[in-house]
Amino acid sequence: MDNTKALPLVELTEQFAKLPGIGKKSAERLAYHVMGMTDSEVKAFCDALNKAHNNVHCCRVCQNLTENELCPICADNLRDHNTICVVETPKDITAFERTREYKGVYHVLHGLISPIDNVTPDKLKIKELLARIGDDTNEVIMATNPTVEGEATAMYISKLLKPLGVRVTRLAFGLPVGGTLEYADEITLFKALENRNEI
Amino acid sequence: MDNTKALPLVELTEQFAKLPGIGKKSAERLAYHVMGMTDSEVKAFCDALNKAHNNVHCCRVCQNLTENELCPICADNLRDHNTICVVETPKDITAFERTREYKGVYHVLHGLISPIDNVTPDKLKIKELLARIGDDTNEVIMATNPTVEGEATAMYISKLLKPLGVRVTRLAFGLPVGGTLEYADEITLFKALENRNEI
Could you read off the pLDDT of B66-79 as tens digits, one per residue? Predict the structure, then answer.
């Protein structure tokens, strides 16, 4: 440890360095930045940290993060509660909401099945999803990422849902809009060809 | 604002985004990371923030950041208190200490003269430096960055110190060790030629 630096500064640097994507140099710069902040700025930052950590929890129904018992989407009666879009993280909901097209509800798994990282199906919110499926459920859209883990999770859950007689769909794979054929990888191109549509 | 996200999460994201070098996407990722932290981790982070902000202040003598009245370097009797190395920021002290060669003390200006950023000499710790200069002072080393502002500040301070009869020196400019001539810019190469030494 560097004994020319004040201990609280070293500790703060270590705390910042624990955050994802923040290296030692960035952590040091952030710690020095805090030195230049006013009392009220530091208080606002701490308050925001504590408030987010203490007041935000999973929605009782869809497991999205919320301060209330139900998230705004589950509490919205104008949405189609019989179409459930299954996503990995709450961030994915933000992405879908940006399209302004999807009017159903969501279910957040909080992870993907990944035996290598010791994430087994029981660690995800899968039983909460199964508990939501009722006679009224029209469709469950598997909207996990197009990765090995995302595919495996989508397959695993669809196998659990099929016996319940519910329609299970998967997001379409194909060329990204605005992309060029030249830069498309072979699997994407193969999927785009396979899933080609009548025009 | 995105009303599908819990308000405390949005607020925390905004707080993270205020930090230097943290964009909107990184801030969001950090906010979600906090959601996954344990209570004690969040407490440790907040404590570190408050402790650093409340307990760390400028050393009475050299203006380095410290929790005590004197920083460890100024409090160290084994160091040469008559050689003062003038630097821009406390981080520069860490860089010098890594060399393990310098045995003098430091003086932190907390900035460089930069009229364009509205930093005038009175906003720097220059009068504190002048107050330290005594009959015993052997040498003041101007160790500001080799930039326009660093040079201007070094020149400004040296003009104030010269009438006091103190020896003022400037860090050597030349080729960085391990660098190649090919990639040296013309000013560095000119300085390296100008300051060439007998071998």
Answer: 988 899 999 999 99
